[in-house]
Amino acid sequence: MNGCQWSQPVGRRVQIARRNLTDNPHIATWWFLKRYSLLKEHVLKPKLGVTNFWGRTEFQARGSIHAHEFLWCMIDGLLVLKENDTEENRRAFCKIWGLTITAINPAPDRETAPEGERSALQMHHDEVENTVGHLSNIVSRTSIHKCANYCLRTKKGDPPTAPKHCRFHYPRPPNMDEMNIDSADGVDQHHVPPPRLTNKWHPKYASFEAVRNDPIPNVLPFNRLASMSWRANCDFMPCTSKSAVINYIAKYASKAEETSKSYKDIMTSVLGRTVRCSRQWGS
Ligand SMILES: [Zn+2]
């Protein structure tokens, strides 16, 4: 945007920004990769003791760039869980990750942003304050899962008319100390204080169930520092076992996005239009 465009009303600026993004995907991609590498270098590495990483950058159907990443972390006291590990090790694992990953809604009293509130995503970094208010401003705009066609599925064996369920298991019930007697899944019959590991989402391996104070909205597990720094969607999940890692890689990190048309296909479709135009114009 040039200086003149910045003086436009917000709605008009959004339109211009959207058009610029569509017309200049190479610039947007460069900035994403630059910003993401700075986040890793200056925030995630020191915060989580990242020693190595592996990931994949993808473009969704409309060109939205995003990354799936595995981080190797060196956090004091952190242990690598084995399949069917001891209860003591599972508790220690959850205790460490519970300090880093949370699903606590910072402002449970507000369902949507208050009218007139300026989005922290649009602020200059000097303006973002290290407060719960700004954390809430960011989380409510970037870390809420909204169920839609892409996540709603009928259960295997159910007729197509049966009610659909979210494949990411939202909405999730509150997960606080006083609400922890969970007999619904038939697994956590004994009292295990949150955060904890649960098999109710994936029977074949345990998942980390972060502390959650509010069932609605569907707050994704996040890291406070990363959310404040990145100011875009960014959720975290600790690796609980080899099976969980393989499942993630197979299902998400290595899946093929819908491919673009080949150059030949594009040229063929353009040629068809050119011929039609030529006939229309009588040449
Ligand atoms: Zn959903």
Supply Rg: 23 Å
Number of strands: 8
Please give the count of helices.
Answer: 8
- Measured as a percent range, the helix fraction is 25-40%
Give the oligomeric state.
Answer: single chain
Largest sheet: 2 strands, antiparallel
- Amino-to-carboxy terminus distance: 40 Å
Question: Which tags fit this structure?
Answer:
single chain; 283 residues; alpha+beta; two-stranded antiparallel ribbon; two-stranded antiparallel sheet; 8 strands; binds zinc ion
Structure commentary:
By secondary structure, the chain is of the alpha+beta class. It has a domain at 75-239. It has helices at 3-6, 10-23, 25-48, 87-100, 132-142, 224-230, 242-253, 263-280; strands spanning 50-59, 65-73, 144-145, 152-153, 165-166, 196-198, 207-209, 218-219. It has a two-stranded antiparallel sheet with strand order 1-2. α3 (25-48) packs antiparallel against α6 (224-230). The structure holds zinc ion (ZN). Zinc ion binds next to loops.
